[in-house]
Design brief:
By secondary structure, this protein is α+β, with helices and mostly antiparallel strands. The protein has eight helices and five strands. The C terminus is likely disordered.
Length: 244
């Protein structure tokens, strides 16, 4: 019985010792954590200035790039929207100009002397060259000068680029003055340009182009087709500040 009491007493003392020493484990963890904090603080306090400056610059560049990309994206969006509005505005201007030409040139339209066609990004005024020129010549016929002056006077009020195009049929021409249809179509376009300049259209808005027989609107196999292919086209396009 004494032995049992002795064993019991011994067991109670061991449990007491374990309970008394339990604070050592969290204390050791706390000391370790505190030591780690001091180490980190010491490391931060001894950062090399050059490395810190390099890190700061890198972060600034990265943030600035993102900011620039965002601004660029916003600018591109605004630019795209402005371009759409500009295109709509130009189309509206051509619609208005087409209406003006249809009204002011109604007598010439009624007599089939000219044809006005609105195209994408512009307007074409088509004149058969038999009204403007005699066969094989590039001097404007006096009988059509008044009509051409009327057209140029209307267009002189607008800032648009005007491209004068000379076209011929496929029949060959051979003369001392115009050895081919290239020279003839170019000379006819230039004659119309000179007439426009005389009537107040600024030179920097005008361009003369000769296409010879390379842009037919009908087949050259018939007389009617060749008649329609022989023409001068007054093409009204973008503003004078834009290239055609």
């Amino acid at each position: 019985m004494k032995n049992n009491m002795r064993q019991t007493t011994t067991s109670t003392d061991d449990d007491y010792d374990d309970d008394a020493n339990r604070w050592l484990l969290p204390y050791a963890d706390f000391v370790t954590l505190l030591l780690a904090v001091f180490v980190v603080m010491y490391s931060v306090s001894n950062v090399e200035e050059s490395k810190f400056k390099s890190l700061s610059e890198s972060l600034s560049v990265a943030l600035n790039v993102k900011n620039t990309e965002a601004k660029s994206s916003l600018f591109e969006s605004d630019k795209s929207s402005a371009l759409i509005q500009s295109r709509k505005s130009k189309e509206d201007q051509f619609i208005e100009l087409n209406s003006t030409l249809q009204n002011d040139l109604a007598p010439l339209l009624a007599l089939n002397k000219i044809k006005i066609v609105q195209i994408k990004g512009g307007i074409n005024i088509i004149i058969n060259d038999s009204l403007l020129f005699k066969s094989g010549q590039a001097q404007i016929d006096p009988t059509f000068e008044k009509d051409l002056n009327q057209i140029s006077s209307i267009l002189s009020k607008y800032p648009n680029q005007i491209q004068i195009e000379g076209h011929t049929d496929s029949s060959r021409i051979s003369s001392g003055l115009y050895p081919s249809n290239w020279e003839l179509s170019s000379a006819r376009a230039s004659s119309v340009v000179r007439a426009f300049i005389t009537n107040g259209v600024p030179e920097n808005q005008l361009m003369a182009i000769g296409y010879a027989a390379n842009q037919p609107i009908e087949s050259n196999s018939s007389e009617e087709g060749r008649y329609r292919n022989r023409r001068v086209t007054i093409k009204i396009i973008g503003s004078s500040k834009e290239s055609p």
